[in-house]
Amino acid sequence: MKHLIDPTDLTKPEIDEIISLAQDIIAHRERYQGSMSHKKLATLFYEPSTRTRLSFTSAMMELGGNVLGFSDARSSSVSKGESVQDTVRVVGCFADVIAMRHHIEGAQLYATEVSTVPIINAGDGSHSHPTQTLTDLLTIQRELGHIDGITIGFCGDLRFGRTVHSLIKALSRYKDIKVILIAPDELKLPDYIKQDVCERTGIPYREVTTMEEVMGELDVLYMTRVQKERFLDEDEFDRVKDSFVLDAARMALAKKKMAVLHPLPRVNEILTEVDSDPRAAYFRQVENGKFVREALIVKLLEWKDDPEHGMPSDETPVEDPELRCPNKKCICNNEHAPHRFRLTENGVLRCWYCDSKVR
Ligand code: CP
Predict the structure, then answer these.
(1) What residue owns the CA closest to ligand 1's atom 1?
(2) Which of 50, 120, 270 to mutate to test the pocket of ligand 1 (most atoms within 8 A of CB)?
(3) pLDDT at 159 exceeding the cut of 80
(4) Taking 70 as the threshold, does the pLDDT of residue 246 lie above it?
(5) Single pTM value for the model
(6) Phi/psi at 250 (nearest 5 deg)?
(7) Ligand 1: which residues within 6 Å by Cβ?
(8) Inter-residue contact 137 to 200 (CB < 8 Å)
(9) Is the omega angle on the peptide bond into residue 265 within 30 degrees of 0, that is, cis?
(10) Whose CA is nearest to atom 4 of ligand 1?
(11) Cβ of 25: how many Cβ atoms within 10 Å?
């Protein structure tokens, strides 16, 4: 069965199929209405959301299906102590597919170990957000006409920005991508993305500390919010919260054909004066999220019993009860998940669920 927990769970041809189907849905919406009648999507949101949850809901409604679930885990039996695995076992009796957001990293991967229906990761802590990635890829394709060959600048909170981590992983499947990382020291991209993704797959990247020095090179500027909810130290957040602000003056330094993306919500990092610039693609990006989630639901249910579309099987976890993941926000430190690890090509042992470096 195919789940979507990490962008690399999809092969490049599978990503292409989803993007292509999303474009066909945009062109011929009437053809897909009713195609999911009698199917049910469960949205299990343990963490706040506007776009992701409502776009999944809207997507399933456009396809003629039904939606059930919760937007606040405190209103569910989670508040009585029910585990993630028990919750998905139960919800799998009621729904054909589950979209889950969780503040605990690796929760959705752990859930797949017992689930009888496809699970879609709608964001796990600061780790991964693969459906935002599909949204971003569709947006780049529609705005620029191609994804191969782009130079993309990621700006802001690259440390906790799960959308950044996931999009870089997905872009490693495309040709001639160049990445520019624009962040202060406190918010730099985690090493596991630099080493295990950029360096292993040969994506050139460079790190800079101002937007001005790179604006003119970019085909895509991917802005992000500094995420207050991920900081353990409020003083550290206050020091970096307004590190980068995109305004009309900085937009004047950019190419005429360039796309500004932002997963949203924004706080201060893009001034509203930029919204009317034709290169500001972030509200079009939101709408693309609905179409790509329609395509994803259709494809995951189509692939459910197809052995050609399973999960990648080239890795087996190393189990060692003596070792511990250092990440307090990892599922294996919050539920009775096994202590599993993956040995990377460069000899680093990482947590199976959250990618934290263990040794
Ligand atoms: N982009 C995104 O994930 O937004 P929400 O947190 O509102 O779902």
Answers:
(1) 263
(2) 50
(3) yes
(4) yes
(5) 0.95
(6) -75, -35
(7) 49-52, 123, 132, 263-265
(8) no
(9) yes
(10) 51
(11) 22
